[in-house]
């Protein structure tokens, strides 16, 4: 290990004035497996997009050198030409094309625009053998499971003479066997001289295969150190990941907690397409009136899936389990039914599931409770306007008028519109999924105030968040969830970030078995 | 809907104390844009035809000739706002026309029952297509493409390739008749115009009074008065022209009723709101508890019903049923909707816009015919107008960063 193959230093990347990366430096040695670790939103994925040219040179500050030479990638094509290949969390394969076609997509084996199918298939077969995928190269990608698709992605990377392979959460969607196989493959590629960077927060995995780990927090490099398979390393990584002091400001609150309001028993959810995969595994929990209960889990742990499946079965298949409100079992089979039973779910993805972005604030606020504003199916528009106006004042939505189009508002104000919509629906149980994602500090404080107010009104409030200080600051009680299972239940008084993170990263995988 | 005005937040505007008023004014400008285009086209043809476009007889003709586009455009704008399309309406017009003619001439139904049966058949056809779109989940493009073939075929089967003419005169009056007339000028028509004008003024004043009472933002007085004045002038001028021909076409009453009814439905009812919500963001609508499948189903039932009505009207106008009736009506209706400012990706559009779009098409038809422009060239011109209208829309959205 002499000169590093890749050196990124002082990387700064801003989005609309918010620093996602604030001077990150990473140094990767030739031929190692380098893990990059950090909480959701720490900046890991942004860093990899900077490296691979998704964010072109010039849109960020700092320098990148590859093999000692500075590089300036204008696009992902430039970085791939240098052998830097990224495999994203969301796989980017074309489902109706064959494995071979996908491997050589954009890089076809051709002469004068005519594809040489024989050579394509022969080379594809070689690559498949190298990644240990026993499939016919002519098989369509949609017939493969996620694990095998991941291998196709790697084969595609290998076809490009890869020097540095970047894998973003490669095992997040895989089952145990596929994960073990993948990790084994990464080991094997290392012996062939390929450097890998893996982004992961599964500590067991990192212990098993990484040579070095770099921990990033809040857009900064915390430290970089060699990995050995020990519990001390795990503790050190966790400490680095969460080390942020509890400096968030939370509005004062006197919890007044009543009877049990909401209870879920043995809730099990399967993946909507891959129906054998269990996404939520026998989850049972309860929330009392006036209580704020946090759900801590990393991305992909099943927290959103749990919430959405309860809310009108908006996610998943093969759902089983029971839901109780005020001690009586209720049905939540459709969204309408869930709403009528007093459940509201504020989505983590407001642009996709929460808002009609081309609609006005008024129509968005009333969208979940039009029935309240209508008689014989006719909407009382004056009252509707008055309601929107009322929420604009109450929530302090910054806009020239409630007739403004929601798509033009800032993230924080959009979030307030979504909150208004659900609060206006008059819920008893309010489920908030990442309520402060992508919004600035001032708006966060306001939203915390709104959440407290909801609890003070005696509602059962559930907050799902991957920001631990936020959960500790807000919640009376916190459940941890990992790989679809509830792995812990802690009172606020006993919850520490380290403890939560340990339970959030609890894994069924007992280390990989490198082949 | 204010959905067409997303741009204001970024557009430079003169400072005004009340942002809401500013926004209101812009909405109206946008609506006037479509109207202005119609006015320009009318003026253009008025000049080109040496004043013949607005001859009383021609105006009456224009309305009766193009009623089908307007009726279909009203149904189509709802389909398109919800993010679908309906290619089958022309064929449905033919099938329903055949049913109407057969039921009177072969089955001996009185004309009233025949009309009721025709509308029912239209709605059933809509239910059939709505079932596939809403509950089976087949894209409307495919379902209605199939419907286009199927119902053209059904029309051919029903009419065995021939024509049924000699329909009752009361039936034909739906398409080409007028209300009773008192001679020239027809006082009934002028009376209707006066009543309509009065109703418009009262309704507008009442709405404005409501806004003032609730302290909601209002349009500026000058533009409010100007708008009403122009509308009254337009109504009275139209009635004046009609009064000097044969009186009020029956079809005009039907059209006016439909426009009022459907405008109200889209802008004021829960159903209409759900249509916009689904077009704006289908997932958000689902997650807000909208029964998206049933809304989709009823959108198509309604489209079928209106296609049935268009079938009745165009059969009555022609005085006979032929299997080739309604050819390319779907394209006219879709063009009218897009000229009227609806968005291809859904979520945006109004009944009034679609009707104005339909009138643009109608005036083009009429004007070009008066000028005896070759039918082939008429198609070229109409196609280009559609393209330009949508290009303008895309351009104005891009310019404002949407």
Give the total of domains of chain A. Answer: 2
Number of helices of chain B: 15
Secondary structural class of chain B: mainly alpha
Radius of gyration of chain A, Cα only, in angstroms? 25 Å
List the helices and strands and how they pair.
The complex is a heterodimer of chains A (515) and B (402).
Chain A: E1 6-15, E2 18-28, E3 33-37, H1 44-52, E4 61-66, E5 69-70, H2 76-81, E6 84-87, H3 99-103, E7 110-111, E8 114-115, H4 117-131, H5 146-159, E9 164-168, H6 176-191, E10 195-199, H7 203-209, E11 212-217, E12 220-226, H8 231-242, E13 260-270, E14 278-288, E15 292-297, H9 303-310, E16 317-325, E17 328-330, H10 335-340, E18 343-346, H11 350-354, H12 361-366, H13 370-373, E19 374-375, E20 378-379, H14 381-395, H15 411-424, E21 429-433, H16 441-456, E22 460-465, H17 468-474, E23 477-482, E24 485-491, H18 497-504
Parallel strand pairs in A: 3-10, 3-11, 6-9, 9-10, 15-22, 15-23, 18-21, 21-22
Antiparallel strand pairs in A: 1-2, 1-4, 4-5, 7-8, 11-12, 13-14, 13-16, 16-17, 19-20, 23-24
Helix pairs in contact in A: 4-5, 8-18, 15-16
Chain B: H1 19-48, H2 56-81, H3 89-105, H4 111-136, H5 140-159, E1 163-165, H6 169-176, H7 187-213, H8 221-243, H9 250-268, H10 270-280, H11 282-287, H12 292-318, E2 320-322, H13 329-339, H14 351-370, H15 375-399
Antiparallel strand pairs in B: 1-2
Helix pairs in contact in B: 1-14, 2-8, 2-9, 2-12, 2-13, 2-14, 3-4, 3-5, 3-12, 4-5, 4-12, 6-12, 7-8, 9-10, 10-12, 13-14, 13-15
Written description of the protein model:
The complex is a heterodimer of chains A (about 525) and B (about 400). Chain A is α/β, with parallel strands linked by helices. Chain A has two domains: about 5-240, Rossmann fold; about 260-505, P-loop containing nucleotide triphosphate hydrolases (Rossmann fold). A six-stranded mixed beta sheet of chain A has the order 6-9-10-3-11-12, with helices on both faces. Chain A has a six-stranded mixed beta sheet with strand order 18-21-22-15-23-24, sandwiched between helices. The longest helix of chain A has 16 residues, at about 175-190. Chain A is globular and about 70 Å long. Chain B is an all-alpha fold and about 400 residues long. Chain B has two domains: about 45-175 and about 250-395, ABC transporter involved in vitamin B12 uptake, BtuC (Orthogonal Bundle), CATH 1.10.3470; about 180-250. Chain B has helices at about 20-50, 55-80, 90-105, 110-135, 140-160, 170-175, 185-215, 220-245, 250-270, 270-280, 280-285, 290-320, 330-340, 350-370, 375-400; strands spanning about 165, 320. A two-stranded antiparallel sheet of chain B has the order 1-2. In chain B, helix 2 (about 55-80) runs antiparallel to helix 14 (about 350-370) and helix 4 (about 110-135) runs antiparallel to helix 12 (about 290-320). The longest helix of chain B is centred in the N-terminal third of the chain and has 30 residues, at about 20-50. Classes of the chains: A alpha/beta (about 525), B mainly alpha (about 400). The interface between A and B is large, with 42 and 39 residues.
